[in-house]
Specification:
The complex is a heterotrimer of chains A (385), B (340) and C (318). In chain A, 32% of the residues lie in helices and 18% in strands. Chain A is of the alpha/beta class and 385 residues long. A nine-stranded mixed β-sheet of chain A has the order 3-2-4-7-1-8-11-10-9. In chain A, strands 5-6 form a two-stranded antiparallel sheet. In chain A, strand 2, helix 2 (65-68) and strand 3 (79-82) form a beta-alpha-beta unit. Chain A is globular and about 55 Å long. Chain A starts with 5 loop residues before the first strand and ends with a strand. The mean pLDDT of chain A is 96. In chain B, a hairpin with a 2-residue loop joins strand 5 and strand 6 (188-189). The model of chain B has no long low-confidence stretch (mean pLDDT 97). Chain B has helices at residues 22-37, 53-56, 61-65, 84-96, 116-122, 136-149, 155-168, 175-178, 240-249, 266-273, 287-290, 297-310, and strands spanning 4-11, 46-50, 77-80, 102-110, 183-185, 188-189, 198-207, 217-226, 256-258, 281-282, 316-323, 329-336. Chain C has two helices and 18 strands. The longest helix of chain C has 12 residues, at 20-31. The chains are: A alpha/beta (385), B alpha/beta (340), C mainly beta (318). Chains in contact: A-B, A-C, B-C. Chains A and C meet through helix 1, helix 5 and strand 5 of A and strand 1, helix 1, strand 10, strand 14 and strand 15 of C. Strand 5 (195-198) of chain A pairs antiparallel with strand 14 of chain C, so a sheet runs across the interface.
Chain lengths: 385, 340, 318
């Protein structure tokens, strides 16, 4: 029988294209210190540190847990570094929560970050490795054909992607930490923005950001120690599937569906759209919102786009998606998954300020990575499970 | 804590250069470890791996390897960008939660792709150390010098570790012969450095009743700790984190120790940290001096310690894994047999 | 032949590292020929300075000037310097040097004629580079006597807020036997894949293990057709480094006849706007002179003119 796990401290940096005002230790400490403060705890109170980030090529520091151990108060403690591609921020939180649920540790600091401005994200992801298939297009070039297939099979109209792009950026305006603050965004602007990898337009794509996220997770004993009520972990899951195999459905990957089902079972969720108040899901290109709505069981197959069009996923709708502005507003790749998990926890703790979903008691945090192969997700709630 | 044991282990034969695809290497070792455990991929509840993008030269290198585990239907799977010994730790934690019973841990790495010394430089503090071009071996030389300064050991002692390790894998020679060679990195000679290799390994863990099989090596203690990164801020002649991890893991009364000492002098630092007396058999596998595979050598120490119990007649073995310059981070695992 | 299948690969980038408040004092100090440490809450002075005390995680307080001289607390002699070392033309010592006023050791190099001149506890002075830019190499090395001119260069340049740290790793990549067979076939204008013995599915390019079973594929490779169907695609509109075609161009999933997974490749020989899902295409090879062990020996896939295949619900051709 696993221990209960509570989120009692949450922190994140002010995300930006370039955080030129901080060093690498400074970036992670900004998030970690905010989480510790929020938890009313100090570095010395943490039993272990779990660090997560995406490929080291972004910053050119191999195995950064080694040079960041001191910066995160980890000296003399167990420290790990998780790397599961784009889902890493989420997986890192899951691994950290496992340390609590297994009873191995009682208070764990978990941090995820990326300081992409130290190099160039496109460069880091597109090397011409000898004898490997040539890179044909940037990251969006991988996902665009998958989106095209979604549009074909669902019959979704073209403007759905535009609606999500606008919604997320307007949500971001209420989030002072969000990187993109596009006060004058509207449908027209999105529709007229340059086409990058058809059908993905510039304003339908996420930015490249520097940023970090951090959380303090504890067992039941410390759950009330923080400055706000805890977010209790109700369920979590991770699933992976191979990148390319015969008959693979890349649009609605089974790994995502299986992870969601396992997580819902654990959390006692039987009717996702009814039982969950808000969700922070990993949407790097706007069309992924309707796609993930289906993958997560919030809508029937081929109808995810209807929930976008009918306002369900807007603030004030039945299931606000990405009230923080999501990955569409801030994308420090290694941290993005943890930001989703953290924002979900902020919602049920009533800490989300101007982007708070009123009365949110149960929230979903979701992350994915690779060629839609790696999924990690959690459900947090105000109620002790 | 729930009873968790190593019930299967397989490693590729050491090789200076292995040009196989990552997925082929993983497929081989995972199949081999599962066969030894009498299980198939369908029985596995959780997979966890360790590897390093920079070692392989491309981001997401572990994704290429995923084909080797047959993640279909989708698998509960995770990855650390560390030696796979830490993937084993993550798998052990996963099993402690109570709902899973079988985990497979694997790791792969290739020293042949790149100058590992250059990789070791880029692992260091990016402001103060990497720009100086100092390497892991340079720092090992500093550590060996610090150890010699304590007066407890000599370079002859180091050479004897090398001879013993080589003998364990069919080699020969004498310490006297080795000591003719010039000192290159502080007091260290070429023979004190690891033979870098390519390879992969996998371990099967079982929890609860499924751990009680013949030949199982039960994990009765496991812990890991990290120290400050700066070599100017710690006593290099000791391994405080190994001592602490060993204490937390409850290391006492061991017959065999598999220590991840990539440089000969490190064996003494680790032996002292773990209070290993004269009767303990050290690195019967030859240790990582004779073949050091990035991201795998630590996991191999765990697997070989299990072998010492399964086949070598040992009752209790300690396995150690290390990461970072001068033993900055250390994992210690205490294994015991005789419960099957 | 084996020469053809080993190639160098370089991962190099001039990383731009912003410094933040503590490190900028240190690196501006180096450029000025001065050394600084950070004071912890307990009053210990850390050199080099960090914005935190590694033993506690708490922030350090202020920065204090240290040195210029210090004592050697540990050292090791480098008999054969590497080309990336601070001294490359003669043996030298790495050393940790506790600067005057500091409580920790700074790692740097000490230049002496011989290892016999290195002593624990000996006093050393930094020899500054003539031109300094704000890097650890602004100190060329430490030596056992004070340099003749100890006056510091005071820079009038704007304060540094970031440092450039070039990184370069050189790899030597050898294609696996499996990949070699695939690439040799391509040079022969054949496209081959591997078959999973359990599911019978054919993968192009061939795979090391079957992704759904984790087991080895059949050892004999299988030839597939050079014609196939576009299952999905995107039109690439933006430039990026290494592109061969000028945007807009089509990047497609091409399911070759006989294969069971699509190949990612280019569609050419028509307007981007003409490409459809279900379109039939065939491989167009580059000129003989340009054939090489790479998928780029296929220049692109072009429409055959046959009727489009209709797509089933799950992105497979009917």
């Amino acid at each position: 029988m696993a221990e209960r796990c509570a989120v009692i401290g949450i922190g994140q940096t002010r995300h930006a294209a370039k955080r030129l005002d901080v060093s690498l230790p400074g970036l992670v400490r900004e998030a970690a210190q905010e989480a510790l403060s929020d938890a009313n705890m100090d570095w010395s109170d943490m039993d272990a540190v779990v660090l997560g980030k995406a490929p080291d090529m972004f910053e050119g520091v191999i195995m950064p847990e080694l040079s960041l151990a001191g910066a995160l108060g980890a000296v003399g403690k167990p420290m790990m570094r998780v790397h599961t591609a784009g889902s890493v921020g989420g997986s890192t939180a899951v691994v950290a929560s496992n340390l609590i649920r297994s009873g191995v540790h009682r208070r764990v600091l978990t941090v995820a970050y990326e300081k992409q401005s130290e190099s160039n994200a496109m460069w880091a992801l597109s090397h011409k490795y000898p004898f490997a298939p040539p890179v044909m297009a940037g990251a969006g070039g991988y996902f665009a054909p998958v989106i095209r297939e979604y549009i074909r099979r669902s019959g979704a109209p073209d403007h759905i992607g535009h609606l999500v792009a606008v919604k997320d950026r307007i949500n971001g305006l209420a989030n002072p930490k969000a990187h993109l603050q596009l006060a004058d965004i509207d449908i027209e602007k999105v529709r007229n923005s340059p086409m990058l990898w058809e059908p993905i337009r510039y304003l339908e794509s996420c930015p490249s950001s520097d940023g970090a996220a951090a959380m303090v997770l504890t067992d039941e004993h410390y759950a009330d120690a923080g400055s706000a009520p805890p977010a209790w972990l109700h369920g979590a899951a991770m699933r992976s599937e191979p990148l390319l195999f015969a008959d693979r459905d890349e649009v609605n990957p089974r790994a995502g569906w299986d992870a969601a089902r396992a997580m819902y079972d654990e959390a006692g969720i039987t009717n996702p759209i009814h039982d969950i108040d808000t969700a922070e899901i990993y949407v790097p290109f706007s069309w992924y919102e309707p796609m993930w709505l289906e993958n997560l069981g919030f809508s029937d197959r081929d109808e995810g786009w209807c929930r976008v069009e009918d306002g369900t996923t807007q603030m004030g709708g039945a299931l606000p998606i990405n009230p923080s502005g999501g990955v569409m507003c801030s994308n420090p790749i290694g941290a993005s998954g943890m930001l989703r998990f953290a924002e979900a926890a902020m919602q049920v703790r009533g800490q989300a300020g101007d982007h708070q979903v009123d009365g949110a008691k149960v929230a979903l945090g979701h992350a994915y990575g690779g060629g839609s192969q790696f999924f990690s997700m959690w459900i947090v709630g105000a109620k002790r499970p | 804590m729930r009873d968790v044991a190593i019930i299967g282990y397989h490693r590729m034969l050491p090789s200076l250069q292995n040009t196989a695809e990552e997925s082929q290497m993983v497929s081989i070792v995972v199949s081999g470890a599962l066969n030894q455990a009498g299980l198939s991929r369908r029985d596995v509840d959780f997979f966890c791996s360790g590897s390093c993008d920079y070692n392989m030269g491309r981001p997401f290198s572990f994704v290429m390897a995923l084909d080797g585990i047959g993640a279909w239907p989708p698998a509960c799977e995770s990855h650390v960008e560390m030696d796979a010994a830490w993937a084993l730790y993550e798998a052990w934690v996963h099993l402690q939660m109570g709902h899973a019973e079988i985990a497979v841990v694997y790791g792969f790495g290739k020293s042949s792709l790149v100058d590992m010394e250059m990789v070791s430089t880029q692992q260091l503090d990016p402001y103060f150390l990497a720009p100086l071009g100092v390497t892991g071996t340079d720092l090992a030389g500093m550590q060996a010098a610090a150890l010699l300064n304590t007066g407890r050991y000599s370079t002859r002692d180091f050479a004897e570790v090398v001879i013993r390790s080589r003998t364990a894998v069919g080699g020969s020679g004498t310490a006297k012969e080795l000591l003719q060679a010039p000192q290159l990195h502080g007091p260290l000679r070429a023979h004190d450095l690891p033979v870098r290799a390519d390879g992969a390994a996998a371990v099967v863990l079982a929890a609860g009743p499924r751990a009680c099989v013949h030949g199982a090596a039960h994990i009765i203690g496991i812990d890991h700790r990290i120290e400050a990164h700066s070599v100017g801020a710690r006593d290099l002649s000791q391994s405080a984190s190994t001592a602490l991890a060993g204490k937390q893991a409850g290391v006492v009364n061991v017959d065999v120790a598999e220590l991840h000492a990539s440089y000969s002098h490190q064996e003494f630092i680790l032996k002292d940290a773990l209070n290993l007396g004269g009767g303990v058999v050290l690195n019967p596998s030859g240790g990582s001096l004779v073949d050091d595979i990035p991201m795998v050598s630590g996991l191999i120490r765990l697997g070989e310690a299990a072998v010492a119990i399964r086949e070598g007649g040992a009752n209790r073995a300690v396995a150690h894994a290390s990461s970072g310059p001068c033993l900055q981070q250390n994992l210690v695992c205490l294994l015991e047999g005789g419960r099957g | 032949m084996s020469q053809l299948f080993t190639a160098p690969f370089e991962l190099a980038y001039p990383y731009k590292r912003s410094l933040g408040p503590t490190l900028s004092v240190f690196f501006n100090g180096l450029r000025d020929g001065r050394l600084f440490g950070a004071r912890t809450e307990e009053g210990r002075v850390l050199v080099p300075p960090t914005e935190y005390d590694p033993m506690t995680g708490r922030s350090t307080k202020d920065l204090v000037e240290v040195g210029p001289s210090g004592t050697v607390t540990n050292w090791c002699w480098v008999a054969q310097p590497r080309s990336d070392h601070p001294i490359t033309d003669r043996p030298f010592a790495w050393a940790t040097i506790q600067l005057e006023g500091a409580d920790t050791g700074l790692l740097h190099v000490v230049a002496t004629d011989d290892a016999s001149q290195m002593k624990l506890g000996m006093r050393v002075w930094p020899v500054w580079a003539e031109e300094r830019v704000g890097t650890m190499r602004d100190i060329q090395w430490f030596q056992t006597k004070p340099p003749p001119d100890c006056s510091n260069q005071h820079t009038v340049a704007a304060p540094l807020t970031q440092i450039i740290s070039p990184s370069r790793l050189c790899y030597q990549v050898t294609a696996s036997e499996l990949l070699r067979e695939f690439l040799v076939a391509l040079m022969d204008k054949k496209i081959v894949g591997s078959r999973c013995p359990v599911t019978g599915k054919v993968y192009v390019p061939p795979r090391g293990a079957s992704p759904v079973t984790g087991q080895p594929m059949e050892s004999d490779l299988v030839e597939v057709a050079q014609t196939g169907t576009v299952t999905t695609f995107c039109v690439v509109n933006i430039p990026f480094e290494g592109q061969r075609l000028k945007p807009p161009y089509v990047c497609a999933h091409v399911l070759l006849d006989g294969a069971d997974v699509p190949l990612l490749h280019l569609v050419g020989g028509c307007d981007a706007a003409e490409v459809t899902m279900g379109m039939r295409v065939s491989a167009v090879w580059v000129d003989d002179a340009q054939m090489a062990p790479t998928l780029e020996s296929i220049a692109y896939f072009q429409p055959t003119g046959e009727t489009d295949v209709s797509m089933l619900d799950d992105a497979k051709p009917a």
